[in-house]
Amino acid sequence: MRFSTLKLAIGAATATALTLGTIAGAAAQKSGGTLNFVVGSKIPSYDAHVETTFGMIHPIAPFYSLLIRVNPDAPATNDFVCDVCEGDVDKGADGGKLFTFKIRKGLKFHNGAPLNANDVVASYNKIIFPPKGVASSRKSFYRMVESVAATDDHTVVFKLKFPSGAFIPALASPFNFIYSKADLEKNGLTWHKTNINGSGPFVFVEHQPGAFVSGKKFAGYHHKGRPYLDGFRAIAAPKMAARVQAIEGDRASIEFRGFPPKQRDALVKVLGDKITVQESDWNCVLMATPNQKKKPFDDARVRRALSLSIDRWGGSKYLSKIAIVKTVGGVVFPGHPLAATEAELTKIAGYGKDLKANRAEARRLLKEAGQENLSLVLNNRAVDQPYKVVGTWLLDQYKKIGIKATQQVNPSSVFYDILRKKQDFDVSIDFNCQSVINPIADVSKFLPGGGANYSGSKDKKLVEMYDALLRAPTEAEQRKLVRQYEKRVLDTEATHAITLWWYKINPHRSYVKGWKIAPSHYLGQQLDQVWLDK
Amino acid sequence: MVTVSENLADAKNAELQDDLRDRPGLWKQITSFARKQPLGFAGLIVVLVFICLAVFAPWLSPFDPEASSYEHMLAPPGTTSDAGTFYLGTDDFGRDVLTRIIYGARTALFVGFTCAIVGATVGLVLGVGSAFFGGKIDLIFQRIMDIFMAFPLIIMALSIVAIFGSSIQNVIIAITIPFIPRCARVVRSSALAIREIPYIDAARANGFSNSRIIMRHMVPNVMAPFLIMLTAFVGQAILLEASLSFLGLGVQEPVPAWGLMLKNAQEYIRSEPWIAIWPGIAITLGVFGFNLFGDALRDALDPRLRSNQ
């Protein structure tokens, strides 16, 4: 009895302390002010269901709500919390095949229309089951979903074909903006490309193309007390030098994507304790994708040779000094339990630490394939960090095995056109940048016919492997299958040659509080948690 | 029996031989040019030095221009390695800056001379042709030239590269096209004056073909403005190529080019300034050299300026 009382007393004291701590923490947050931040890319359209770029997410995400999201106060974790839903995120019923979400009452869009379960269903139907001709960039993440339905105005039910650990992380994608069903029905499924009507913490004010996007606080925001800011202004600054200078001159407080180490050092040197630096591994990787529709890249020996030429361990050491890349890894975000260990990596072609042996093998393979005098053109994107840096480094790596390589650096639109539509490249820089760490969904990038595999591969075995992975019930089983999948992608078939995973460095003005670095530049961008200590 | 006309011919030959005997040698001509046009001579020296650098780059350069030495990234000038000394330092990929400057002269002069020669030559043909034929042909040609000249040089070049993509061939096309109307306009004005000189009428009266009159009698007489334009164009083309490369629309990595080196140096301009300073100096010197030489050439070839001296 005495023991129980003691336990109760300790419990009560802990709860009181936590409550007081939370209150004190909340009290410490100051309201008011406008956050100015710089964005280094253009806004292709406002429709997040279609777009994949931070150029859209950074200025537009503050206008929208999500069903669930990664906890903005702990974005480095896979701690999923409700946004327009209430309570805890459902753990699943019917053996993990049924997920129910209760939608908050009294929600409103910025135009005053009510937001309920029907809007959530309409949004997810557009994402998961888009009609023919309507683009949805992450459709393949939801292969396990059978249906989405509203059982009443405040209940959304997702029914799955089979249980999958990849479902909830996919649901929390920051690109899953909740649109108004009325807007979709009245104006069509492409209306949101050029129009904004969200229910997020900020209301859209103005977009001056090539200059800025601005927003003001939404008084009816559903997370009480938030946002702390009166407004924000996302300033377009394509040149890195301009972005660095904007922060140095306090014309902007932060850039959410990331700076290279040299720029971090320069800002720290000039601003001292007025600048705070947050760093993290980044769920983003650059790779070289040979085009299997073109000879001799239809030959796996040639593709393996290309991968074997790359000094990944050396590149990690040297390139990390000048670029936003650092970590050697396989197909899964390094550090995740499903990622390959160093010992496992070194067994994959091109990851061995004996560089001379790797390159000797590469030369042998080229000779065997009759491609000793191979020359190629690398399709690259006209973005300095890290595309052009890594591209130039890759050319040097290819040269080491006797390949005569040049690069064609194209503006983003031309680059994408060549990579995705024309597909007439020899080898192209390619990338896999994801938001929520969700390895099983993320590796769908390499899936033939998955929508994001531009190698021209038609490897049916890989599709079978992926389907097995999607259904794997335990983490141990998933890990085993991921290793097989990884070996097939990077070694046996060598459809893609992963270079280095990115490393995120965010120097920002020290008065910017509440924003915490995430392993993705897409996460934590609704800005309702951010405040200014001025 | 010797006729009066034979006597006259002998006397003319003797006079010509005397003239040839009195003509100064090459060395004397050079020293005379250096004395009369010291700045132009300095320009000529700079031009010759860059031409030598471009031609003999493989023998003059201490390193391979595309070879990276990752152990020596961003090394300051004077850093030594097992492979040699980086006299002007290294860039972000550990490539020797001096070597890339030397090889960069190849890119600059190749683009510069190609654009200038092609642009000026096409302009010459169009300008002389337009002046010679006159009438509607001249009117149509000149209005087309007006359209081209309405765009500033850099804007025109930027538009062409943006449409066709960035490669050395496209850069050459982009720079050459705006040169054509500029040369054509200058040459036409000289050719218009020449067209009115009686010997052109005489050539017509003798039944010479239009092409013979243009090529044998008009073109040689507009060579002075043509050569001046040509030298000026080389400097402009070097600057334009550097500008396009600086904007990321010119030649691509790892090709050594001064503008590209300058572009890559932006990120390091405070911490490793040598990456920006040397290519900047190379561009300045190259353009300065060609412009000074072009000015001196104009002074030497323009009879009005010559008579004033």
Kindly describe this structure.
The complex is a heterodimer of chains A (534) and B (309). By secondary structure, chain A is an alpha+beta fold. Chain A has two domains: 31-225 and 511-532, Periplasmic binding protein-like II (D-Maltodextrin-Binding Protein, domain 2, 3-Layer(aba) Sandwich); 281-503, Roll (Dipeptide-binding Protein, domain 3). Chain A is 33% helix and 20% strand. Chain A has a six-stranded mixed beta sheet with strand order 12-16-11-15-13-14. Chain A has a five-stranded mixed beta sheet with strand order 7-8-9-1-10, sandwiched between helices. In chain A, α8 packs antiparallel against α11 (355-368) and α15 runs antiparallel to α16. The longest helix of chain A has 27 residues, at 2-28. Mean pLDDT of chain A is 91; it is low at 1-26. Chain B has helices at 4-22, 26-36, 38-55, 57-60, 97-133, 135-149, 153-164, 168-195, 198-205, 210-218, 223-246, 258-265, 274-301, 303-308; strands at 79-81, 84-86. In chain B, strands 1-2 form a two-stranded antiparallel sheet. In chain B, a hairpin with a 2-residue loop joins β1 (79-81) and β2 (84-86). The longest helix of chain B is centred in the middle third of the chain and has 37 residues, at 97-133. Chain B is mainly alpha-helical and 309 residues long. Helix content of chain B is 73%, strand content 2%. Chain B has a single domain, classed as Orthogonal Bundle (MetI-like fold), CATH 1.10.3720.10. The two termini of chain B are 48 Å apart.
What brief labels describe this structure?
A: about 525 residues, alpha+beta, D-Maltodextrin-Binding Protein, domain 2, 6-stranded mixed beta sheet, 16 helices, about 35% helix, globular, disordered N terminus, B: about 300 residues, mainly alpha, MetI-like fold, 14 helices
What's the quick description here?
The complex is a heterodimer of chains A (534) and B (309). Chain A is of the alpha+beta class.
Number of helices of chain B: 14
Strand proportion of chain B, as a percent range, falls in: under 5%
Report the CATH architecture of the largest domain in chain A.
Answer: Roll
Terminal Cα separation of chain A, in Å?
52 Å
Q: Report Rg of chain B.
A: 25 Å
The CATH topology label of the largest domain in chain A is: Dipeptide-binding Protein, domain 3
Total beta strand runs of chain B: 2
Helix content of chain B: over 70%
Biggest interface, residues from each chain: A-B, 30 and 22 residues
Helix content of chain A: 25-40%
User: Mind telling me the CATH superfamily name of chain B?
Assistant: MetI-like
Sheet with most strands of chain B:
2 strands, antiparallel
Poorly predicted regions of chain A: 1-26
Shape annotation of chain A: globular
In CATH, the topology of chain B is named MetI-like fold
Residue windows where pLDDT falls under 50 for at least 5 positions of chain B? none
Summarize model confidence as the mean pLDDT of chain A.
91
Q: How large a portion of the residues of chain A is in β-strands, by DSSP E?
A: 15-25%
